[in-house]
Amino acid sequence: MPAVQETVDRVKSIDVDQYKYGFETKIESDRAPKGLDESTVRFISAKKGEPEWMLEWRLEAFRRWKTMSEPNWARVKVNPIDYQDLYYYSAPKTTAGPKSLAEVDPELLKTYAKLGISLHEQEILAGVDPAGRTKVAVDAVFDSVSVVTTFQEELKKAGVIFGSISEAIKNHPELVKKYLGSVVPVTDNFFATLNSAVFSDGSFVYIPKGVRCPMELSTYFRINERNTGQFERTLIIADEGAYVSYLEGCTAPMRDENQLHAAVVELVALEGAEIKYSTVQNWYPGDAQGKGGIYNFVTKRGDCRGNNSKISWTQVETGSAITWKYPSCILRGDNSQGEFYSIAISNGHQQVDSGTKMIHLGKNTSSRIISKGIAAGVSQNTYRGLVSAHRKATNARNFTNCDSLLIGDKCGAHTTPYIEAKNSSAVFEHEATTSKISEDMLFYCRSRGLSGEEAVALVVNGFVKDVLQHLPMEFAVEAQKLIAISLEGSVG
Amino acid sequence: MALLEVKNLQARVEEKDILRGLNLTVNPGEVHAIMGPNGSGKSTLSYVLAGKSDYEVTGGSATLEGEDLLELEPDERAARGLFLAFQYPIEIPGVASMTFLRTAVNAVRKKRGDEELSTPDFLRLVREKAKELNIDQNMLKRPVNVGFSGGEKKRNEILQMAMLEPKMCVLDETDSGLDIDALKIVADGVNRLRAKNRGFLVITHYQRLLDHIVPDVVHVMAKGKIVRTGGPELAHELEAKGYAAYDNAA
Ligand SMILES: Nc1ncnc2c1ncn2[C@@H]1O[C@H](COP(=O)(O)OP(=O)(O)OP(=O)(O)O)[C@@H](O)[C@H]1O
Ligand SMILES: [Mg+2]
Predict the structure, then answer these.
(1) Given CB atoms, is A451 within the 8 Å cutoff of chain B?
(2) Disulfide-capable partner of A74 in A10, A353, B89, B162 (CB 3.0 to 4.6 Å)?
(3) What is the C-alpha R_g of chain B?
(4) Does the beta carbon of A462 lie under 8 angstroms from any beta carbon of chain B?
(5) pLDDT at position A28, please?
(6) Is B62 in contact with B49 (CB distance < 8 Å)?
(7) What is the rounded CA–CA span in Å between residue B99 and residue B105?
(8) Phi–psi pair at A196, nearest 5 degrees
(9) Chain B closest CA to A446's CA: distance in Å?
(10) Do A441 and B90 touch (CB under 8 A)?
């Protein structure tokens, strides 16, 4: 299959350390003093020129956070994090805020080009994009700030608001006030509360009533600065009958120390609206000995607030030293639908504890969970999921399928499903399998002419194809390559 | 030059000597049959030739067209033209048979320096070969060998063989588990592939397969060695008398 071949060629072209996004951009930055107290929160808010209400919101979160402690129920081993030894704000000096492409520091443009992200609208518009991609609007977030958002003009014509959340706080306070923290409350959990206090940037999307967003939207997150936490905040609102497909991608340089990434993503789908949210997560996973890598502690939640609304999460998780992440759906509206499609890969010393929560509150709500976990090396891969039906949620339906694939015998895969049905009409189905890429399977493939890498890629692609098909086309191809790269070295 | 030349081959698995000085020469165009009691090492020979890693070669040599096979990775052996139809084909969940075939064909073609087959050419070829082997198109959409009946698995092996155009085909009990009609279909499939530059090593327990695929040479294997070699009539003799005569021959 050409895709398999391409994957393998890609894998081969990569040098020993596998992670090809590990370079650092030399750029002067503007940082908050190290450590975290009220003055840090004030510093961030002032940097962004925020209104008073926003600062108050942050301070309240900060006071709350001081009373909380880190969650410890996930199946991961975390090195202690010294919250006073981190920088909470870092921005390239040349960027005072998002501006037009012409004004963006060429060093930053080069960085994104190297990452394979095109910020050049003209090229794509003129149809000379070498990869032949369709139009995708990109919000590029570098450390703590959004450096540029492409296609803003074109989107504006359709009435779509897409840009950094900092801008939205200034330009659309009524929307931000109404929806920020309405899905993930400030007090939700340790990391979400921390994020609420110190979030620096992220994307904001508003699709007005009845509008189908004319192109894919995406945000590309990059952590560059050393000892800096990234706390981005994303808020997407699809008004009645609106539709949007959104994708986020992320990478970081290779560093010996662990870096914290604690994001919050909130989605709101009003009556008849649909949001498709896809993630290709490729933060630096650490080296072969398990040194360094990103701690990816993320709270993502969608609220199907209106009747007949739909939210669909698709994630391909290949990076990070530790992933702690449960994109969830609150099925509040009657007939609302939630979906979660996940591929979570762990290799080397990576630890993944991920899954979803489907909270059925409305009548005739349905949810679907397809999770594919792949563990290689000495990694640990846990699926943790909750499906619950409220007392009033008559006819709630869920289908869950959790498959694990083990490569080698030093890794582990675990499945922890929780089910709560308080309404007797609920029908929840659960299927789970664990399989292994055996030596016999590899030998069989190799005796038919496939190299070891081609054999693994073939079996893995077969394993994940049900999920990949839910990604937007061009990202599916990217994801497929990424999966093979992440598994490099997993066959002896 | 001989196509396959095996000299004094010795191999062990799990500390146990299985092949104990095996000699065999297959020339281009020849069909050789190997018969022998259970556990005599027939499958071991086929695995050692194909390069399965748990089998440790402790002595002797095996060459394909003069090239040392034992030095090559399994996929390189396949690219050079060695094919093994497994006694117990392996299941690969999630991977459609069609995808598997296409990946294999293109991997082998690439290693041989040939162009990849275009999608239409590939599909035409698969349809034609599948039809000859009475393999239903729907079966090709299913994951490799998963839920296939014993006979379907064997026919699928022959389909792979036909698609990969090997030079030296090793068939390990491809007839076991086949009903009478399927046996004929598989044998016809093998006969169609007989060519003057291609060799076959057919491992079987039953004379009836050799009624369809008439061998040039029949070997008897016992305790890790070839203990007798003869013409097609040898198979009839074995069918009548069994292997008792060879108990102490090795
Ligand atoms: N992986 C293994 N571990 C241990 N012993 C093995 C292994 N593979 C083969 N053997 C042993 O090697 C011997 C030869 O086995 P082999 O499968 O080659 O026999 P065979 O001639 O093909 O038999 P059959 O006619 O039953 O297929 C047997 O005693 C078998 O138990
Ligand atoms: Mg055998």
Answers:
(1) yes
(2) A353
(3) 18
(4) yes
(5) 67
(6) yes
(7) 10
(8) -60, -35
(9) 5
(10) yes
Q: Which residues of A touch B114 (CB under 8 A)?
A: none
Residue A488 Cα distances to A9, A10, B95, angstroms: 12, 10, 20
Separation of alpha carbons A191 and A298, rounded Å = 7
Residue position matching structure tokens 């094919």: B83
Q: Are A238 and A162 in contact (CB under 8 A)?
A: no
CA-B47 nearest atom, ligand 1: 18
Q: For residue B45, which atom of ligand 1 is closest to its CA?
A: 18
Residue A154, pLDDT score? 82
Mutate to test the interface with B, among A448, A453, A463 (most CBs of B within 10 A): A448
Using an 8 Å CB-CB cutoff, list chain A residues near B78. Answer: 446-449
Question: Which range in A139-143, B103-107, B183-187 is most confidently predicted, on average pLDDT?
Answer: B103-107
> What does the block give as tokens for B214?
């008439």
Contact in structure between B189 and B133 (CB atoms under 8 Å): yes
* Residues whose CB is less than 8 angstroms from the CB of residue B69 and which lie 6 or more positions away in sequence, other chains included: B49, B51, B62, B63, B77, B80, B82
Give φ, ψ of A414 to 5 degrees: -135, 145
Smallest CA–CA distance from B94 into chain A, residue: A462
HSE of A475 in the Cβ direction (CA atoms, 13 Å)?
A: 27
User: What are residue A331's DSSP bridge partners?
Assistant: A304, A360
Amino acid A116 reads G
Q: Which ligand is nearest to the CA of B55?
A: 1
| Type of residue at B183 | L
Judged by CB atoms closer than 8 Å, whether chains meet at B51 and A446 is answered as yes
In chain A, the residue whose alpha carbon lies closest to the alpha carbon of B53 is: A443
User: What's the longest Cα–Cα distance across chain B?
Assistant: 56
State the distance between the two ends of chain B, measured CA to CA, in whole angstroms.
Answer: 29
CA distance A323 to A317: 8
Give me A230's structure tokens. Answer: 């990234």
Please write the tens of the pLDDT for every residue from B22-54: 999 999 999 999 999 999 999 999 999 999 998
Reduce the DSSP state of residue A258 to 3 states and report it: strand
Interatomic CA distance for residues A214 and A219, integer angstroms = 16
Q: B29 CA to middle of ligand 2, Å? A: 24
Residues in B touching A372 (Cβ below 8 Å): none
CA torsion angle for A387, A391, A393, A395 (degrees, to 10)?
Answer: 90
Q: Which residues pair with A427 in a beta bridge?
A: A397
Range of weakest confidence among A90-104, A439-453, B159-173 = A90-104
At A192-224, the pLDDT tens digits run: 999 999 998 888 999 999 999 988 888 877 766
Return d(Cα B218, Cα B215) in angstroms, integer.
7
Reply yes or no on whether the pLDDT at A131 is more than 50.
no
Write down the pTM of the prediction. 0.81
Average pLDDT of the residues of chain B: 92
What ipTM was reported for this prediction?
A: 0.96
Q: b vs e for B151-177, b when ≥16 Cβ sit within 10 Å of the residue's Cβ?
A: bbbbbbbbbbbbbbbbbbbbbbbbbbb
Kindly report the nearest CA distance between residue B238 and chain A, in angstroms. Answer: 32
Please provide the DSSP assignment of A148-211 as one string: EETTHHHHHHTT-EEEEHHHHHHH-HHHHHHHTTSSS-TTS-HHHHHHHHH--B-EEEEE-TTP
